Input
Amino acid sequence: MTAATVEDRGPGRAWVAGAARLMRIELRRNAMIWMLPVAGVLFWALTYRRSMALAPLWNVRAMTMQSTTIAVFIPTVTGVAAWTGTREARRRLTDLLSVTSRSRWRRQLASWAATTAWALGCYLACVGVLYGVTATQATGSGPPWWPVLVGAASVPALAALGFTAGTVLPSRYTPPLVAMGAFLMFEAGLELVHGAGSPWQISPLVTGPYQLGDYEGLATFYPYLPDLPIAQVIFLVGLTLALLGILGLPSLAGGRWPRLVAAALTVTGVLSAATATALAGTGRLDPHGMIAIPALHNAADDRPVAYTPVCSHTAIPVCLHPAYRAYLGAVSTDLAPLLDELAGVPGAPARIAQTTTTYRWTDDGIDIATSAWTMHGTPPVYTIVLPNQAGEPALSVDQSANRVKGRIARDLVTAVVGGGSDPAQQAVTAGVLKGVRPVLGSEPPDLGRRITPNTPAAVAAQRFAALPVGTRHAWLVVHAADLKAGRITLDQLP
Amino acid sequence: MTRLVHLHLASRRVPAALAALAGCAIVLWAALHRHWDAYGALQLPLLFETACASVVAIATASPFGDPERVTGHRLPWLRMATAVTLTIAAAAVLAATGIGTDLAGGTTTAVRNLAGLTGLGLLCAALLGGALAWIAPVAYALLGVYALYTQWHGPALTSPCIWPGRPGDDLGGALCSGIVLCAGLVAIAIRGARDTPPPAG
Amino acid sequence: MNIDITDVTRRFGRTRAVAGVTMSAGPGVLGLLGPNGAGKTSLLRMLATVIPPTSGRIRLLERDPGVAAQRRAIRRRLGYVPQHLGYYPSFTVVEFVEYFALLKEVPAAQVPRAVATAVERVGLGDKARARMRTLSGGMLRRAGIAQAIVNDPELLLLDEPTAGLDPEQRVAFRGLLRDLGQTATVVVSTHLVEDVGAACAQVALMDGGRIVFHGTPQELTARGEGRTAAGDAPLERGYSTVLAEARS
Output
């Protein structure tokens, strides 16, 4: 076999064909294959089960997926890659392989690429299952792809980290120590994230303002800001290039040109990673709760996402963002009697609509503000936010709905009847709320309950509550303004 | 006999294993001197316990293979003694890191976690070989880390089978951990670490 | 000359493994004999471009292995079987040989045929799909030889290639060596003097890092004639005689 024959079919085609065959062997015999069931089980236990317990909202599931899936892949991929990196020394093939004409670097890149390919395939399969199931449950906007991309960029970087460590230190202790060391490094990195301008949020485990965690208030009414994910992808690609470049630097790795290429990759990788880290350090808390990086920010992402709300069929419709469709029934069904009774009454809203929250960094942490729980516009619209929108991620749909139902009832009755100590107002309030009392819970604690038993007010309240709904509604339409103004006495109540 | 023990320990590269254990302990001790938030403080020791357990399990690999297996009745005891010695050494260095620092869960928790993780590693060594013995402890550590996480964000994982998530004085967790360690010690004493090169070498 | 080395030395710390070897060889089979520690393996590793010499000049296949581009060209046309053959247990025989064919830059289109030919030549055709970990010691050795010849090398370096082969296989292997020696330079390091007598046109005897004899097997045999040196065969007596003279 002469050098000339190698070039017979053109160096480009020969290179590709040779590389493809080499990859085929590496892929068939890669150790990552044996780790796939372990990674799959861990993904199911740590990511899938947890995600399915969350509300079917794309934002929270995608962000949870990013952080927990990468956490699963850190030790598994780095450990196996380190194991693969130690392979030549472990199998005493160093001499035999060193006399082949292809450079050591190319050989190592093939091993790394095969490990990465299997790990990436596993990652994408896991994410595919999670996204697929979520697609059957979630409503509203489509899936955010940036978390998927950050995870996908993490896999080659983790494989490169493990592989390089295994190659440099081919000890049998290297795989577990690298696996745990990498996990520690990424976890410790989270400890250092302080504020929206921390360079440590370049860690792919961070999906947004670290102090907020992954919760439902983000990236629904406004786009999923890609600023931090872009920086993270640049960092991960840079890290991958730098680590792979380091493999090609030793004199044994190859000839002069491959080493120059390796040096260029290393420098490019280091610069990219450093730049991305610096960019992450310029981040600021976006009013909509995500990390904005000025140099990467697109002003178009500040515009709210257009949507058509989903509304209940109650007399006063409750309208939510379509992503929160799962909450609609839980919020509106129990309130239906009250909403039917108050519809059209002066002071009552024409609609109950979900609104957004805004975010501001303070000395005490992140302040989440909202303009909700007030009437806006003409005809009046009463605005609400769901607790899960405002920093309470552990609540279920029903728990979250229960929190808002009581407040809605209180605010609407107060808006119509007036919340004062006037006996007539108290009697009407007690009567109106009688039908929805079970859903009020502890909110409000005293509304409509101040009436002393066996007093004229209590008698009037019982009398008012006993009226047919239609009669009460008709009376309220006519007299609500006077009642609220304190111009109705107990005797005037029907 | 002393000479035999000495040579057996040398064949398992016990000095290198002890050096690795000491290295883990030093890094943990240094790390414990900085302030960690609640997650980090709990998870940090578990990562090092896993590393130590992996080191103990990997040290079971025999460089001799069949010639050693056919040498007689002393070998199981030597294997057992090596594993027990290294486990005790690992427990000692982990306990030492708690001196003057705030080791989350205390020494009891650290020793319990280490024992169970070591048992998993020894079982894995008997099944897959010493060089791959780290897979089970590392995979299990992720479950442990998650169990600790769920103490803040429920629903909490409270099964005693996931003992890192249980308090240090929990009997169920200690029992599970102890049973796994005993099973691992028995397996490694009787079978030794698997010699055959594993698939996908 | 495919091998042209001049005053080559190699040190490992304070130990001088190869102490000023000058040698040249063209196509044909060269047997490298010598006692343990004579420096045979170190010399072969230098010829295989695994390690560079501490001093001296080496030219292989008319090229300088000290220059990266030329070393790569040499390696494309080189076959090497080390004393201790490493392998990936999960690879099949075909994959093992194919892996090396690709690393030696055999054109991808020619790889399947080259692999099949190499595997057949070492008599492992019926084990082509067997995993390496299932092979016997002799079969592993033959798989190692197959990877060395898969690129049809012009320079083939074999360190103890017949260790572990049964007599029948050794006879077949000698035939293979003679066949390869028609076009390539084959250097065989061995302790088995009868292999040298049967397969080698030239023989070099090393002791203490030096070549103390270089000639034909017949010339080595002649050195032992009429002597009382140890050995059951004439070639062994020649071997012992030369060693004794070198050490005296």
Chain A has two domains: 22-302, 310-492. The CA atoms of residues 242 and 267 of chain A lie 7 Å apart. DSSP finds 18 helices and nine strands in chain A. The radius of gyration of chain A is 31 Å.
